[in-house]
Amino acid sequence: AGREADDIVSWLRKRTGPAAASLADVAAAEALVDSSEVVVIGFFKDLASEAAKEFLQAAEAVDDIPFGISSSADVFTKYQISKDSVILFKKFDEGQNNFEGDLTKDNLLNFIKSNSLPLVIEFTEQTAPKIFGGEIKTHILLFLPKSVSDYQGKLDNFKSAAGDFKGKILFIFIDSDHSDNQRILEFFGLKKEECPAVRLITLEEEMTKYKPESDELTADKIKEFCNKFLAGKIKPHLMSQDLPEDWDKHPVKVLVGKNFEEVAFDENKNVFVEFYAPWCGHCKQLAPIWDKLGETYRDHENIVIAKMDSTANEVEAVKIHSFPTLKFFPAGSGRNVIDYNGERTLEGFKKFLESGGQDGAAADD
């Protein structure tokens, strides 16, 4: 909670005071550096220079990090500065980063983005907002039980790979033994006993997951995986359960990632699928109605009622954002998909199917 309080204080100071505190002497500079996990100081001989103005614009744009600015010769001497400079001070990793290059607002913001988070950050309730709210939308996750032998060695390997990808990929580790993190393991289709393991995810509009070819967790293998991802040479990893032997023996057919394509897009069949999550209350309420619907069309020559656990199976053709989601895949070669938006009753479903997927269909966007 202390860390959160620090963040709130920094934010309030930035909102209510100047974008960068004026540092008249060494004591003021030292106090600022000491005040927060991350601090940015601009050293400018002329505070009215173009470079100083760019620095202040960058300071305006960042809410959660304190900035300072100084033209004091004593402050320059204290930090061994001879020319205009910007330094990011931090209480982790290498301790400080010196800005190099053309001093513009955008370059400074990129520099701060790349250096203000630890090389490797542990996923906790406190760090989650920084992880998800940050600029870096590609994350590599190391699922590492703190109880594992050589815990530190594995973490060090991960950390030594991270330096090459600063500002491009965020390196995160998750204690896979911790009960709070079980949902995240489920989301990646991982079981506790499969950890330590590495996965990569992009948090763009569609979350896409990637899995390394090798289970080896050496720094070289992790770097190779990240480089291949950045070069666009890795296909998304789609989870699938194994196909149950009796998947088609019941009125409601069971779909998994491995058989979804051939069943849903069978050109001779009209396939109505419930995408569900085992923990979802609405799905549990729907289950007996869906079973009755399966019974109703059990012997129908071209209507198939099916279901898929979307927490354990993913398919390229369909992205599921809420549960239950009901989609209809009409016969024919067009690979059409119709969203069902009608009443979740046996009558509503039957009307929809008898109308060829029209009565109860969601309006096109």
Automatic annotation (TrEMBL):
Residues 229-358 form the Thioredoxin domain. Gene3D superfamilies: Glutaredoxin. This is Protein disulfide-isomerase. Belongs to the protein disulfide isomerase family. Its main location: membrane. It comes from Emberiza fucata. It is a peripheral membrane protein. InterPro entries: PDI_thioredoxin-like_dom (IPR005788), Prot_disulphide_isomerase (IPR005792), Thioredoxin-like_sf (IPR036249), Thioredoxin_CS (IPR017937), Thioredoxin_domain (IPR013766). It is found in: Cell membrane; Endoplasmic reticulum lumen.
